[in-house]
Design goal:
Blueprint (H helix, E strand, L loop, with lengths): L1 H21 L14 E4 L13 H9 L4 E8 L5 E3 L9 E2 L16 H6 L1 E2 L12 H10 L3 E6 L6 H14 L1 H7 E5 L2 H10 L5 E5 L3 H6 L8 H5 L1 H20 L3 E4 L6 H9 L3 E4 L17 E5 L10
Parallel strand pairs: 1-2, 1-11, 2-6, 6-7, 7-8, 8-9, 9-10, 10-11
Antiparallel strand pairs: 2-3, 4-5
């Protein structure tokens, strides 16, 4: 019994020492972003305007949003493209004889991605944008950006390199006006390890694994499907309690329903901004979520989320 206690204490001490060794310096402050309202995927569920497109970003801009949240995946030829789901369907129509509905974005070339058209676009003229096209739009319209890196599998290093390349190509805009967000602490750690000037946000969700295994459009490890609730607990604890500290996160990003006023105050005392998402209606956003120390991303009715 005594030997087990000693072994446990030693393991804890070694683990703590290792975390201290790999811990990165605190990233750039984003507290100046407090009380801002971002367009989640630009906008969602607006007739004739597909999410994560330049028209969606235009809708958010015209409706008083301060910035844009968007999703990024790596395509086969190495470009960063703006697309939420791992597969073509249901967001985009297949291309007969060229692209099947079950095709993964990661398996398409840049040229094939540009052939896709959105199911929600009656004109069939809106293209899937590259991340650089989105950056150009936001820079020209004085919008800030939240760039969510989705699952990139074995291409993580290539994705990190492409993101850093984009930052260094547009340094005056990217370092001050954008933040990279992800549910994957590894991609955020590698970004900041190679380029400490990048601000990052650790996204968290108590039901992340359970939500993913229910979506046929997401690729998940087979083990997650066997015991999703166990992985929910472990991953949430790690991403909420350990990862923000180790990666030097400038922000934390829980689903709005998982944030409390005391917890928000605790993060703010550490100099960490709280980013909230997942709202359905402005009534979901109480007054304390509109105060300093917090900002939000929403699908529509952007102006109704500003401080009252």
């Amino acid at each position: 019994m005594k030997a087990a206690a000693i072994a446990g204490t030693l393991s804890t001490a070694l683990g703590w020492a290792y975390l201290q060794h790999i811990r990165l310096p605190k990233g750039p402050s984003r507290l100046s972003w407090q009380q801002l309202v971002f367009g989640h995927r630009g906008c969602r569920h607006i007739a004739g305007i597909p999410e994560n497109t330049l028209p969606a970003f235009g809708y958010a801009n015209e409706n008083a949003a301060n910035g844009i949240e968007l999703d990024v995946r790596l395509c086969k030829t190495g470009e960063l493209v703006v697309h939420h789901d791992a597969f073509v369907a249901p967001l985009c129509d297949p291309v007969p004889g060229v692209i099947e509905p079950s095709a993964a974005i990661a398996d398409l070339t840049r040229e094939q991605v540009k052939m896709l058209r959105y199911a929600a676009d009656p004109s069939k003229t809106i293209e899937v944008p590259l991340l650089e096209e989105a950056v150009d739009y936001c820079r020209e319209h004085f919008l800030k950006m939240l760039i969510e890196i989705k699952d990139v599998g074995s291409e993580l290093d290539k994705c990190v390199a492409r993101v850093i390349e984009l930052y260094r190509r547009h340094p005056n805009y990217m370092f001050d006006h954008t933040t990279v967000i992800s549910f994957n602490p590894k991609v955020l750690y590698k970004l900041r390890q190679r380029e400490p000037r990048i601000a990052v946000c650790m996204l968290t969700c108590k039901t992340l694994v359970s939500d993913l295994v229910q979506k046929p459009t997401e690729k998940v490890p087979p083990l997650w499907r066997l015991c999703p609730r166990v992985f929910d607990f472990g991953i949430h604890w790690m991403c909420n309690a350990i990862a923000p500290w180790v990666i030097g996160a400038s922000m934390v990003g829980p689903r709005f329903s998982e944030m409390t006023e005391p917890l928000q105050a605790r993060w703010n005392r550490r100099g960490v901004l709280v980013y909230l998402w997942g709202f359905k209606e402005p009534t979901d956003c109480p007054d304390w979520m509109r105060r300093p120390g917090v900002f939000v991303a929403v699908d529509d009715k952007h102006v109704q989320y500003f401080p009252k």
